[in-house]
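Researcher: Please translate sequence to structure tokens.
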Amino acid sequence: MVIRRLLVLFGSQTGTAQDVAERIGREGVRRHFVCRVLPLDSYTIADLIQEPLVVFVCSTTGQGEPPDNMKKFWRFIFRRNLPAASLSVVNSAVLGLGDSSYPKFNFIAKKLSKRLMQLGSQNLLPLGLGDDQHDLGPDAVIDPWLKDFWAIALRIYPLPPGLAVLGDHVILPSKYSLQFEGDASNGSVVGPYVTNKHSTCPPSSLHPFPARMVAIERVTDESHFQDVRLITFDITDSGIQYSAGDVVMIEPRNPADSVEQFCQLFHLDPHKTFTLKPNDPATPPPARLPQPCTVQYLVERYLDINSVPRRSFFQLLSCFSTDELEQEKLQEFSSAEGQEELYSYCNRLRRTTLEVLFDFSRTTAAVPADYLFDLIPEIRPRAFSIASSQLAQPKHIQILMAVVQYKTKLKKPRCGLCSSWLAAQSREKGDVYVPLWVKKGLLQFPADIDTPVIMVGPGTGVAPFRAAIQERVASGRKGNYLFFGCRGKTKDFFCGAEWEDLQQRGCLTFYTAFSRDQLFVFQCRSIKYTCNI
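Model: Translation complete:
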């Protein structure tokens, strides 16, 4: 008897490709396949030659770069010494997710599809290219592509006798079971950050360094509509090394009022502790979640309850609904025909998961806690360009952060999760520790000391150039030219005193453009004459 196995591998940066991969896994289970859904870098690549049926779901980041969780796989699959027929027994399909407004639209998926064919894999159907720019989003491609894929897959691997495809109304088992153990000692939050401070592991997504917030300074005028902060973190004894152009990754938290509201909705005691038991032995527990864990920690630091929910959220929620009107609306939002309505309800207004749960309160009350991990994705770390140089400030990392807040038709303003959380921290209440780590950025600066550099950085985009200028000045390098633009000299002239001081010392040639000042001045009288390089 042929084993009906399906492996779904994904490379995802923002969570969209992971969401699609998990959807394919659920649809595979409904068709009685034995399914595994994994990030590409979590899969043992050597086992790929034995997989009968594989679906790759890949996004493209930056200028044609693979997502972080498939970079190891990417380097391996393009090794020149791999045999040409190494994947000859593998039936594969590739689904790409991208944005056609970028020059390298779906570059990773296109290149991977060609490479799989070079290694002998049999492509079951043409490459799928989901596009964020489509009126209906990537689902406009994903839905018909999946329909074709399942038709082919069931032709190769027919359903076992007596079995039929499970309908959407059938609730599949949850990923995990929550086994509650009682109250947390002293009602405290279980958290790894204090213990990780002395960890021998280099700071990473699994082992972030708890950096103490040393300073948080508003660098825009109080009367200015935009609140921008220069934040300084202490990285003493962290082992972190960085250079100009690198980025710092920060793990944000949900605000206390959101955590409280969520726990009330699901009738959860925030001080209860639990352990996670995977319902499928092939599914590992979340790496970022301590075991045991409190409900408070789970909701505050792991579940992304303030994100805009995806289509899969509504599909799963509809399965639990006992209210006819709520179920009908949820089913509409999760259908292909209801995507315009869903966009108007959720995406256009930036309605959050927590707000949707309140809107469908009768359904929410019927959702078992075991399904929280299936329903709500984990919080993604936020990336910030580093705005300081380790040569100039060896014990610190600085970021230039705009506090995100804007209005939609909803009464409550929309707020950025990470920026709002950081801006709300006060050192007056005691030391504040922020979990972070550093990764290499795509922006690189010349190593040659004699090479001049022209930098154009409007607004907070000046952050990596501040790091580069500090680094180059500390190294005694000349030929630093910065073009900076903002609305007004007295409103949002970031680090203005620093630039003027460097210019007076002969370390920087500086040009400004203030677009909203009454007398518009572009201080670039003659670049060809002044900037003789």
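Researcher: Any highlights?
Model: The first strand starts at residue 5 and ends at 11.
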